[in-house]
Design a protein that fits this description.
By secondary structure, the chain is mainly beta. 9% of the residues lie in helices and 41% in strands.
Length: 313
């Protein structure tokens, strides 16, 4: 493993060349492929000293469309509150934290063999003003799938064509334990399975947004504080979903939803999630706390895109 020190002009050594603030261009948006490349790199965090993977890239835009600010977030683990022995041997769970830097030149990159995980989830969030101009873009790794995702997979894997099998169960977004559908021709033949394509004006499932900041745990069953659909105080109008068409051989699927603020005041969005509907109930399978919260002005819109990707090897 070779550690390369950031050079003059904010350069960071890479296998493919040099990534620099000067080369990137401080006033133009990073191409998505470059962001994804950065999100697979590891650096030494200048705050905690951990070797950490880049977690998110956040950009702010001026009225002319130029970038007026950029932030990079590292996914680190804080062990300051743990007793020394437990911090060393990992007997207690680490507290995940995101450390922010404003220049790649502040970082030392750790050159290691970079392999993509078999399954990855990425989150895109876009903030637009009332005139439709982009004011903020965040691309970050998703925090994690949640237990209901595995529970639903189990229910499907344990199902036969004839409808036999054991239906798993998990807490819906209201906290009540409900059965997932597992029967193809059995008890629930007419209900949706793993549905996320919720319609406009409905916040029951699909992509949801909220104001909570609590970390995920194995007992997370909903957003910490979901923003309701509507035009009243503290509400956002939930739009319909769109999906990138999938074809044989494709290695990702993309879901997108737009939210409009017609409440009369600004609303802060700090968490998002992906919720599926099954057996008439809604179950959360992904939840993310945004590395940088978004302030959605009255008359403005907020767009969320989830990309689930696999790597074939």
């Amino acid at each position: 493993m070779l550690i390369s020190r950031a050079g003059s002009g904010g350069s960071v050594g890479t296998e493919a060349g040099l990534i620099t603030e000067r080369a990137i261009g401080v006033d133009r948006s990073l191409p998505e492929e470059q962001v994804f490349d950065l999100l697979h790199r590891y650096f030494i965090c200048p705050y905690c000293g951990n070797i950490s993977r880049l977690f998110a890239v956040n950009e702010f835009y001026g009225e002319d469309g130029s970038v007026v600010g950029r932030e990079y977030y590292l996914s680190c683990h804080d062990v300051e509150d743990l007793p020394p022995e437990e911090a060393r041997n990992g007997t207690l769970p680490f507290r995940k934290v995101h450390h922010r830097v404003s220049d790649l030149g502040e970082l030392k990159e750790v050159r290691i063999t970079r392999t993509k995980p078999n399954v990855e989830v990425f989150l895109h969030a876009y903030n637009y003003d009332a005139g439709g101009h982009l004011t903020q873009r965040l691309i970050q790794r998703s925090d994690s799938f949640l237990p209901n995702f595995i529970g639903m997979l189990y229910s499907q894997l344990d199902c036969s064509y004839a409808g036999s099998g054991t239906s798993g169960s998990g807490p819906n977004i209201g906290g009540t334990n409900e059965v997932f559908i597992s029967d193809y021709t059995g008890v629930y033949p007419d209900n949706d399975i793993f549905a996320t394509n919720d319609g406009s004006g409905d916040a029951s499932y699909g992509i949801q947004v909220g104001t909570g900041t609590a970390a995920n745990s194995t007992s997370t069953y909903a957003l910490a504080s979901q923003i309701a659909n509507g035009t009243g105080s503290g509400q956002l109008s939930y739009g319909s979903h769109s999906y990138v068409s999938w074809s044989a051989g494709s290695t990702n699927t993309v879901a997108t939803r737009t939210f409009i603020n017609q409440s009369g005041a600004s609303i802060t969005v700090s968490e998002v999630g992906l919720v599926f509907e099954s057996n008439g109930y809604s179950f959360i399978m992904i939840r993310d706390v945004l590395s940088s919260s978004f302030t959605v002005a009255n008359g403005a819109s907020f767009n969320v895109q989830y990309t689930i990707a696999i790597t074939v090897s």
